[in-house]
Amino acid sequence: MSTDTTSPGPRIYRGLNHKEGIGWIAGMTPVQAFLLIAVCTPALIAMSRNQWSATLGWGLFAAFVAVLILIPIHGRPAFRWLADLIMFQTGVLMRWSPWQSRAAAGLAGDHTEPDLPGVLARLQFPDGPEFRGSRICLIHDTAEGRWGATAKLTHSGVGMLSDDECERLASRLGSMLVGLGHREIVDRVSLCVRTVPDDGTEYAVWRERHQRPDAPALARQVTVEIDHDVASVSVRTELFVTVSGTEEALRRPAKAAGGGIAGRAYALYRLLEGVADGLRGLGVTSVTWLTSTGVAEAIKTGFNPAAAASLSFRHLTSPDPEGTVGLPVSQAGPALAPAPAARAYHHDGFSSVSYAVQPPESGTTFGSLGPLLAVRTAGERRTLAVHYEILSAAEGARVVKSDRFRNNVLVDAKAARGFNTTEIDSRRQRGAREQEAAVAAGHAVVRYTVASSITVPADWNVEDHAARLENDASGRFRLLRLELAQDSAFVAAALPVGIGLPRQKRAFTA
């Protein structure tokens, strides 16, 4: 999806939204058009030779193949489903999919070397130089050549805000994204929100430290009973932001800063304060950039929500809470992740189902994703991630010009041949013109994706809880279950490492 920051308020999420991947040739990609021509050629040749029986046979075959190529089923054509199924089953049969950590296998390893499954295996976590008293962990995506950093945020939420206040926050978010786009160093911002089942560990430790020995016995008993009842249904929320830039964008400023990992870190550090200021304008009260132990704990609790209690207890009972006590990167991943199922992902005694969230064509407003985080049963965990990519001014201009030209050609061709122009065609044409005008006025084009997941203990029926998440989205958003890719979808929806946007394959289309 893509959008712009043309106007204030919730229009950052509506008005000029476009879907990626719609082809130039009657809505087909070049590959689809080539395959369709190839399967239709025998029927056309037979027709030119007046071989009508052969024409009928080849025509039926071509129609069948065209349905497999063109008709999407849950977001993917049948041929794509077949290719994905072959790759999925190959990974299962060749034993590439099951995962076991080195620690679980009893193997020794460097505590600074990551031990992570699936798409996370391409990440490295070097420590940058000191920044405001701590060494920030850099997230290096070796596959895409990206460098980033993650921060943990404190926010009061938007559930009690008025519509006007939500519009102001949306406008500020758009301004922050435009500002990052003008710098052309950081071009991706990922926001990840996770609910945390609160078992009362932190409060219990606090009470032990502040317990009054002269308190009445009855008051103690009542307090214990209240704590027991409330702790089982309490839910907290944690919020992360990950910012990253490409190797190409960082190379020159990194070279000027001394080169190497430290140079890339300094190039990112120069923008972190600006990002923090923009986030404070969105109501964030604190921004804490994570060290390697902080990133490791964020990943670990993503895979294993039950680990949050022990990690919190370790920090609260440590004699040096501000020190380096924490989880090493080598232990950030799950201990065990069996071969993924087609419709769910199993890890460390938990099961997760992940979805791509598709906003409606009519648009949505700031804060409307909140129902996806509404926990229905004590013990389940819900996550929501929004990934933004700000295109450079040159790339944005190229994209909107290509989009406008394609829509004009489509409408003009229909009119010239006497076909009626649908309202969808007209709306896309108007949107393309408006988006080109907005980019010419200095606004930015932003790609974005939204992913959501639900995690429950492995002995629960995960399908029941997935159905509840789908019910919460019904009437607001369309949830597309990412079958055959649940392990990668879980990373995009639940882990604050900046993975979640596919590579841009071609120009945006309306």
TrEMBL record:
Keywords: Membrane, Transmembrane, Transmembrane helix
TM regions (residue ranges): 21-46, 52-71
Presence of keyword Transmembrane: yes
Superkingdom field: Bacteria
Record-given protein name: SCO6880 family protein
Organism: Pseudonocardia alni subsp. carboxydivorans
